[in-house]
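Input.
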Amino acid sequence: MKNILVVDDSALMRRVLCDIIESDERFHVQDRAANGLEALDLLTRKSYDVVILDVNMPRMNGLELLKELQNRKIQARVMMVSTDTSEGAKTTLDALELGALDFVHKPGTAMDCRTADFKEKLLYTLQVVAESRLLTYDNPAAAPVKIEPVAPARPGSLVRRRAAVSTGNKIVAIASSTGGPKALQSVVPKLPKALKAPVVIVQHMPAGFTASLAERLDALSEIHVKEAAEGDVLEPGVVYIAMGGKHLNILSSGGRCTIHYSDEPNREGVKPCANYMYESLTDSRFDQILCVVLTGMGADGTKGIQNLKAEKKLHVIAQEAGTCAVYGMPRSIVNAGLADQIVPLEQIAQEIIMNVGVK
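Output.
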């Protein structure tokens, strides 16, 4: 049974969250705190499998607590509860940068938190975070983001086969989930604006959050990053992030490839689902497709890449286990025998550049 600390300044919200958690035999609410200071006191004396953390609280808010945990090098698996407002989305990304592993959207009222949909999402995310790797602050995947020039891959790094840079049309298609926003900050800002391919990313996030993610990555990067819009024509040297809450597909017509969104049900339990993105490339004009699978729970990407491989020339990179917050999606790729390279997070940008080239 996993022991949980619930941190929220609303007594009613604490009760609702605790009732949901205690309804599942996998979890037990060991302690409750009304603000960050109370939580910090508990975390200096006890350890928990997961900390559920509110953002806006008196005395010490959620972001201030995360900074203090980082300063004191206190390890904790933290899951945020956030609103889906524009400001809430930016705050959530701040929390993910400061070490939170995942988040759930908190409805506006306690009554709405009692719905089956919220309960299912909360318990699923709680289980994902509970099973995630407890990263140390000395680990690059957990440390504050620092953008540095990309160095050549070290000899002896975990590489199976490196594809030569080919001629013709190329695309980079990335899938990521839990731990993905932070991992993407270790990849996208290292890509040059002259990259000889468009980059399309499916990051598992709900509607309202992907625009803020794209804006943040764009501000950090030389390459242009945007939330993909319906009808966007894919251009080399541009990164397109799938809109949350819809499935992204790539359509080919008249020599152009464009973004198209569809509204099928969740697949692999998520929306957007990377499998749709990969499968939509089957009829595309691209001669070479570089598939990159980063940290995340589950197996999204595996079936899509399997189906795509039957029709297209692929090169597949899986993130190395030791640098993943959750070694689920990359492990599925590796276990299916699809990975051409198994690469630590800090080397993935270099491998993308080596495989698709620069204009």
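The chain has a mean pLDDT of 90.
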